[in-house]
Design a protein that fits this description.
heterodimer, A: mainly alpha, 8 helices, 0% strand, B: mainly alpha
Chain lengths: 224, 238
């Protein structure tokens, strides 16, 4: 079986398991919707112009929902005892990493695709921004789930589990979040791409660094 | 007193002596900066001799932690885990001091304790990452796994060091750039005079020696703590 087929098999396994219960996708979706709604009326009282807050709200919603998905990703494997099964399969550890990472990316992506139109409606934004927003979001969540999958595999072996993952992950993904928020704001304000090119490079750069580092270090996390 | 004890004592005495000399130099020898107007600004500038070295030691400590983390993953020798942990602990102590001294300086100069400037933000985030490192270690019971995960995290968290260093060079920030910026392009950019430069590098040196002295002490304490733990296990499970 080729490497890509192995990765695909792991993604397919996660998708099949999720489609049976749909508990992760639905909770992520409802949670991100809640975040957007709560922010909407929390800021409504004070902010002069809600639109200036929109990029931040979107990314907080994505980050919180992503965190839910990421922490489930390995807790699910551990609680069902399937993590040993996964390790016993004759595949490279890096294939497991890529499979789990793509699975997480897919789940977060699906949630974002549902949430984006709602976000646009609630913040009264124009729908023409949608394609560029999707591009920014994809770049942002690659970095997020790239390093998040590694930390999720680490956090599952700790005593605090769900509590520890955000503490480890949020500070580390700040560069990605920061660049994503800046790019989202640029898209919504119609700023030309040349003006935010350095943020774009920063985002792509950190995506690559996080993916490469996590890809290499995953071996050491999954070794038992 | 063993050979090692004597060297530790000498190193500690040297660090103490250098720190005393550094304080005398900073308050007695260093001239008032010529580019600042008010007396408060002129006096508070002296915190720079402590603020920059604390961050330098912090970055040095985190680099050592990442390097020894990498060596741990390769060699699996416990020594590297001890060094990595000790270095992070010292680094967190020094960056905490760096945040506090920076805040104290910012109050008279920028008229605020804290502002969400890129430099300050990246500094605070980097500090938080290493707090996370200590929490991660605290949450794992198996010593081998604790060392392994901590090493992986130390390598990833090290990304904050170059980010921190570059933050004031990439983004427009109100934080002064001292090292590697002769041009006054950067806001607050300036050149150091000869005496100021001498005192500054002396402080940098004194803090670096202090770091190594603390490292020796901390690694020894950690080894002893692990030995006690080991002996305890032997007594319990005999």
């Amino acid at each position: 079986m080729s490497y890509i087929r192995k990765v695909y098999a792991i993604v397919a396994k996660d998708v099949a398991a999720e489609l049976r219960t749909r508990e992760m996708l639905s909770s992520m979706f409802v949670f991100s919707l809640l975040v957007i709604l709560v922010f909407n009326f929390a800021f409504d009282l004070r902010a002069e112009n809600q639109k200036t807050l929109a990029p931040g709200v979107l990314w907080v919603a994505i980050a919180f929902a992503g965190m839910l998905g990421l922490s489930r990703s390995f807790i699910m494997e551990k609680d069902r005892g399937s993590i040993e099964g996964l390790l016993l399969t004759p595949v490279d550890r890096s294939a497991i990493y890529l499979g789990k990472m793509l699975g997480n990316l897919l789940f977060i992506g699906v949630v974002v695709v549902i949430i984006l139109p709602i976000f646009i409606v609630l913040f009264n934004l124009s729908a023409e921004h949608l394609p560029s927003l999707v591009g920014v979001v994809i770049l942002g969540i690659i970095g997020f789930s790239g390093v998040g999958t590694l930390f999720s595999a680490m956090a599952v072996h700790t005593r605090a589990r769900e509590v520890l993952l955000p503490i480890l992950l949020f500070p580390v993904v700040i560069p990605v979040m920061l660049a994503s928020v800046k790019l989202t704001a640029a898209v919504l304000d119609g700023v030309p791409f040349a003006d935010v090119q350095n943020w774009f490079s920063l985002l792509v750069g950190f995506d690559l660094i996080f993916l490469a580092l996590s890809f290499m270090l995953f071996d050491y996390v999954m070794e038992e | 007193m063993t050979q090692g004890d004597r060297w530790t004592a000498i190193l500690l005495a040297l660090a103490g002596l250098l720190m005393v000399v550094a304080i005398i130099l900073v308050f007695g020898v260093a001239p008032d900066p010529s580019n600042l107007v008010t007396p408060v600004e002129r006096f508070s500038q002296r915190i720079f001799y402590f603020h920059v070295p604390t961050w330098w030691v912090g970055f040095l400590a985190f680099s050592v932690a990442a390097g020894s983390g990498l060596l741990y993953l390769i060699t699996r020798h416990e020594r590297w885990d001890v060094i990595s942990l000790s270095s992070v602990e010292i680094g967190v102590a020094f960056t905490t001091m760096g945040l506090v001294t920076g805040s104290i300086w910012a109050k008279p100069t920028w008229n605020t304790w804290w502002t969400w400037d890129p430099r300050l933000t990246t500094a605070a985030i980097g500090w938080l990452m290493y707090i996370g490192y200590l929490m991660l270690r605290g949450a794992i019971d198996n010593p081998e796994r604790r060392a392994r995960f901590a090493a992986v995290f130390a390598i990833i968290a090290f990304l904050s060091v170059p980010l921190n260093f570059m933050a004031i060079r990439w983004w427009r920030t109100i934080h002064p750039v001292v090292i590697g910026s002769g041009s006054a392009d950067a806001q607050g950019g300036f050149a150091l005079g000869d005496t100021i430069r001498m005192v500054f590098f002396f402080c940098l040196f004194a803090f670096t020696v202090l770091y190594f002295a603390l490292m020796v002490l901390r690694t020894r304490t950690e080894w002893l703590a692990r030995r006690v733990e080991h002996l305890k296990q032997r007594v319990i499970f005999r």
